[in-house]
Amino acid sequence: MQEQPVIIIGAGPSGLATAASLNLHSIPYIILEREDCFASLWKKYAYDRLHLHLHKQFCQLPHLPFPHSYPRFISKQHFVSYLDDYVSHFKITPLYCRCVELAVFDEITKEWIVKVRNLGSGEVEELRGRFLVVASGEATDPYTPEIEGLKSFPGDVLHSTQFKNGKAFRDKNVLVVGSGNSGMEIAMDLANHGAKTSIVVRSPVHILSREMVYLGLNLLKYIPLNMVDWLMVMLSKLVYRELSKYGLSRPKEGPFSMKVAYGKYPVLDVGTYSKIKSRDIQVLPAISSVKGNEVVFGNAESHAFDTIVFCTGFKRSTHIWLKGDDYLLNNDGIPKPRENNDFYTKLWHACAGPSVYVPRSGDKVLYFPQGHMEQVEAYMSEDGTMEMPIYNLPWKILCRVLHVELKVEPDTDEIFAEIILLPEAEQDEQSMEHRYYRASPRENYSRYFSKKLTPSDIKTHGGFSIPKRHANDGCLPLLDMSQEIPQQELLATDLHGNPWYFRHVFRGYPKRNLLTTGWSTFVTSKKLAAGDSFIFLRGENGEFGVGVRRSMTKLLNSPSPSIISAHSVRHGILASAFHAFATRSIFNVYYRPWTRSSEFITPLDQYIKAVQFDHCFGTRCRMRVEGGESGERRSLGTIIGTEDLDPIRWQNSKWRCVKVKWDPAASSVLLPERVCPWSIDLTEFTKKKKASTLHHQKRARPNNASSPEFSSLLMDGRY
């Protein structure tokens, strides 16, 4: 029985990327592949004209970029060559002809047991490992649907994995079954080689160009999914016009929504649609049955064919051999959406900072569009001085939180939260006061520390100096001080799940706690600089987590990551919020704590408590601010007035309506001159407002979402 820390199943691109990452951290592994080569789908089972459907920036594997000479959309030949170089560069040596028959977790030994059949010798081998990586992919077993009479068909029946090109099919009648990307491309290849080509299209399809998808994938970083879907459909209609005259139709759901919900990709048109328009490719409905060489279709018509090519995808077999996987896969073997576990949540909040509030599902909150605009300006390094139109949108929207997912950017480690909100039908303040909801408490974790890195901490051959108080407060296991040089090995994971090995040692003159081995690798990989903060957390079960928090100076000096302007993003956000408010439909927002903009989603109870008091001139107040390694502190100041921040667009808004003069020694950081009432605490007694002033505002009445004004708003909001 062989034992390895990590067992990887599948030597396709995902398995190879995992192996390369483990190699970089010197973590032993074994990689199993059913075929006799790596990336067998690309090397053995792909048609000749295949190209990556997405721009190359979305497809390169980690730690080795594509050569600059490669085109934007990479061919099969280029990609196979790239994978050959990748395997050679990282010295990856899969075990080939290994078919996994069983993988089960042993609760006693806390190990995975994997039974593998050697297809060469026929022997069954058993492997054990602490971690199991299932990288067998979506394309596991070719799938051909059962069709009445198919066995009687005298011609050739192929699956797309057996098709190479259309040279051998000139002047033949060929039927392509399946209207996904493979089906559409194979149909075009057949038509280009002189075959009389027909294609079965059973369901509505989204047809997009490669450039449209590239734009959509970039927009999804900044704009809610439903708005990107709307734009993609509009662009598709503009470019491809009406599809019905050619036997095609568009789905009711958007292209990216269908990918998320059903795993169904839009069709990326590379020339097939023009062949359909010119009638070089005939579109036919679903197959009813096969009678000899005649294929009968759902409209009762029949046509004779010489060859049928099934482009009907694959069936996953993972759920057959992976036991106890109910929490990982559904009945079709498709991975379930990831849910944030408790340790991940704690580490995320530690990286966010002690003053950051993120709501939970079910919370009642107020959404402030003005605050959302501030975050966009801060994140995209623009000042927001460009003129914005006046939107008929309330300055606050009462919402219920439907879902929260805590995420992290793969390249920068910036944490952010995706929050799905549903506007409530009742929006007036009187309703809010009578239905008093208490929000979920802010996360508070004591067993972690944060340290701002010094120039000596980030030296290539140096170590990280652990503050003495944190070395002994339970964040780290106690060292055995009886050793000549007290030391221990620590294994921690970051928010991406990557393992990091450190050596904790007590040495030096004077003696101090240090992280040595592994620290330089961490600094280099995370591209840390002096002023950034290092986070170390100890979980309740003894596990360790590490993270980073970038300095504000670095964030402000970084170029904007967007391919579109902040002005356009603000338009899109306001249009999305308006549509959601007008139709009482869900909308997505992204909260980025590192921008240090005010929280534009506020607990309902916190808002109600704050606005019931007068914020009079001369009243003393205090505000929580982050205090670096000391956690958070409170800064004192005096209220010097209240007035609208933007009386034209957001009349009577309480967003940053309070003007404060802070005490000279209030904080070492620059504090805002304007704050929201719920961001401060009054330190002296003030009278409550009268009920008549609390409830003087009527509920805003949005325009009809189907009106011309709304259509114009959406168009303006996108560009």
Automatic annotation (TrEMBL):
Composition skew (Basic residues), residue ranges: 691-701
Pfam families on file: ARF_AD, B3, Pyr_redox_3
Record flagged with keyword Chloroplast: no
Keywords annotated in UniProt: Auxin signaling pathway, DNA-binding, Nucleus, Transcription, Transcription regulation
Cellular compartments annotated: Nucleus
Gene Ontology molecular function terms on file: DNA binding
GO biological process, one term: regulation of DNA-templated transcription
Classification via Gene3D superfamilies: 2.30.30.1040, DNA-binding pseudobarrel domain, FAD/NAD(P)-binding domain
Signal sequence residues: none
Domain (TF-B3) ranges: 449-552
Gene Ontology cellular component annotations, sorted alphabetically: nucleus
Region Disordered, annotated ranges: 691-719
Keyword Phosphoprotein: no
Subunit and partners: Homodimers and heterodimers.
Job of this protein: Auxin response factors (ARFs) are transcriptional factors that bind specifically to the DNA sequence 5'-TGTCTC-3' found in the auxin-responsive promoter elements (AuxREs).
Family under the similarity heading: Belongs to the ARF family.
Name the record gives this protein: Auxin response factor
